[in-house]
Specification:
single chain, alpha+beta, Tumour Suppressor Smad4, 2 domains, 27% helix, binds adenosine-5'-triphosphate, nucleotide-binding, kinase, ATP-NAD_kinase_N, lipid biosynthesis, kinase activity
Length: 293
Amino acid sequence: MSKRLHIRFIINPTSGPKSRVNVAARIEQHLDHRKYKYEIVYTERAGHAPELAQEAAESGCEVVVAVGGDGTVNEVARGLLHSETALAILPKGSGNGLARHLKLPLGLEAAIRVLNQGHITTIDTGNINGHPFFTTAGIGFDAYISSVFAGNTKRGLQTYVELVMKEVRNYKHLPVKASINGNTMDTDCFVMAFANAAQYGNNAYIAPMADIQDGLLDVCLVRKIDLVKALHLSYCMLTKQLANADSAEYFKTDHISVQTEEAMMYHADGEFLGESKAFEVKMLPLSLKVLVP
Ligand SMILES: Nc1ncnc2c1ncn2[C@@H]1O[C@H](COP(=O)(O)OP(=O)(O)OP(=O)(O)O)[C@@H](O)[C@H]1O
């Protein structure tokens, strides 16, 4: 028998809807024990998963599995950046943006089968003001929504959509100066999204053309919004189409700087990060190994 690979599952017990599914029992039942020697650890607090992932990578573990939503995936992936250890995902959140982009099954047993049968590839990752992101980052409205959502006790898609519908009318665009591909532009900014993966999660495609292995960020700029544009954009996001140029503009770049007069909110993978007047957003090409179907 060839040497078994080490695999560590990092479970965020607080992520996803409450469920009676015993993840540990399912892993024991469905994981290929001829291929893997496994261990399960549980996060005890926010910020714990990067430590657990890094520790696994340093000890030579071949695969680390994030069991949770995009917040957990972000934390585990952060701990594995530039290492030889591959990230795998058992999706348990409400959005599951990276899992969906990588075409991972969302069901637990099917996702465990990917661990048994999948292969390892390497993807790009992004960085906004020193914070790694793997799916999307952004400034403006999407960050504002992440800040309100973070304080919400109710989670899930419906809460999210209700929040967006309520807040879209109140949130105002701000002037920004953006340097992209050697050009500087002064523009209004309702939202500027930086996409590594094509979608925010829940199959809401902010950058339908994004390729996670091309070394480039897809930037989506919405300068101003009104009801007609909001409806058009929502329709395009849910049908994986580019919006017309009047509603949104798209750029590809490996680096973008943005300066603002008033501080703007920003997020990475849906996690609200605070406010700033200056943003540096970079791509780190092929910097994370991932296990895919
Ligand atoms: N043991 C823990 N206790 C409290 N918070 C934790 C713990 N472990 C991880 N976290 C935090 O929980 C946050 C949310 O996790 P995650 O995004 O995976 O789940 P979710 O919010 O249910 O999913 P989604 O974002 O898809 O709705 C993470 O950003 C992480 O910092």
